[in-house]
Design goal:
alpha/beta; single chain; Rossmann fold; 5 helices
């Protein structure tokens, strides 16, 4: 079961999102009212997605988003504020424009989690290819290195 962290300073919004994500989306949900509370949860748990209100007190949303991304956690920002939407568009941060329908919320959450898992799979595959290429290169270079070592050990005539 995927875990979603909901960060919103309005208790009624947090409650609605928590019920919708739990009952309709079958997610495990944690909730926080401030960025500091959310960071505390991030230290103790690793959610599959952070659903962040753009006007959450305690930290700038983009600052919080960067922190979550550094931890390898995808983020989906919610906002109805035109300035925030413009900023989110400029930096390419995924967002939901408030007000939104619950089916849109569920779709966007599922898509963000799936995209993150696909990205992780691509990165893991690339790392495995790099490891394999490195091992292949070491096998190719080893005979040449051994020959070079032998030539250095021979006394010069």
């Amino acid at each position: 079961m995927a875990h979603v962290l909901v960060v919103d300073n309005q208790p009624d919004i947090r409650g609605i999102l928590e019920i919708a994500l739990t009952e309709l989306g079958s997610y495990r949900v944690s909730a926080a009212a401030t960025a500091d509370d959310a960071l505390s949860i991030l230290r103790d748990a690793r959610p599959d997605l952070v659903l962040l209100d753009a006007l959450t007190p305690g930290m700038l949303p983009l600052e919080f988003a960067l922190d979550a991304v550094r931890r390898g956690i995808p983020i989906l920002v919610m906002s109805g504020h035109p300035g925030a939407i413009e900023t989110l568009d400029q930096v390419g941060c995924p967002y939901l424009r408030k007000p939104f329908h619950l089916d849109q919320l569920l779709l966007e959450c599922a898509a963000a989690i799936l995209q993150h898992k696909q990205n992780l799979a691509v990165v893991r595959a690339a790392l495995e290819r790099l490891r394999a290429d490195r091992a292949d290169l070491a096998r190719l270079v080893r005979p040449a290195q051994q020959a070079l070592d032998r030539s250095r050990q021979r006394p010069d005539k």
